[in-house]
Amino acid sequence: MEGNYMQQNLVYDALENYALLSFKEIDPAAVWEFPYFKTIFSNGDPMRDANPIFSARNKKDGTVFKIILDEDQGELHTYIHQGVEEKVTVYLMDQTTYLNKLKGLFAEIAGHCAGYKID
C-alpha cells in the first residue's frame, strides 16, 4: 500500500479497514469491542491522525490495546500506559511494520487473552 496516510484520506482509510477486517478474522465469537477509542472530532469527522489507527477492548477480561502509526518508530515498540481507570498496551510502529506484522500481532494478542501463547 503506497502513499502517505497522513496526507491521503484513501490511504488512511485503507490502512484502518485492513486492521478492522484482519481483527474480525481472529474474533469470530465477538469477544472484543473495536474500535474501542473513538477517534472523531465533535462534528463527527474522523481525525485520521493514526493515534490510534486501531484499538480494542476484551469484553471478558478488560484487556485494552491500541496501535499507533508513527513513521519515526520503525519496527514494533510496545509499552504499557497505566491510566486512572485502565491499563492500555500501546503498540507503536511504522506503516511497513504495520502491513507486515499486523495479523501476527493480532493472533498473539488474542492468544494471550485466551490463556495461551502463540509462538
Q: Tell me about the largest β-sheet.
A: 5 strands, mixed
Reading side by side through the largest sheet, how are the strands ordered?
1-2-3-5-4
Low-confidence stretches: none
Estimated radius of gyration: 14 Å
Number of strands: 5
In whole angstroms, the N-to-C terminal distance is 27 Å
What is the overall silhouette? globular
Q: What average pLDDT do the residues reach?
A: 86
SSE order, one letter for each helix or strand = HEEEEEH
Helix content percent band? 25-40%
Q: Number of DSSP helices? A: 2
What attributes characterize this protein structure?
2 helices, 31% helix, 119 residues, 5 strands, alpha+beta
Summarize the structure.
The chain is of the alpha+beta class. It is 31% helix and 22% strand. The radius of gyration is 14 Å and the shape is globular.
Explained architecture:
- The chain has about 120 residues and is α+β, with helices and mostly antiparallel strands.
- The protein has one domain (about 10-115).
- About 30% of the residues lie in helices and about 20% in strands.
- It is built from two helices and five strands, in the order αβββββα.
- Strand 2 and strand 3 form a beta hairpin.
- The model has no long low-confidence stretch (mean pLDDT about 85).
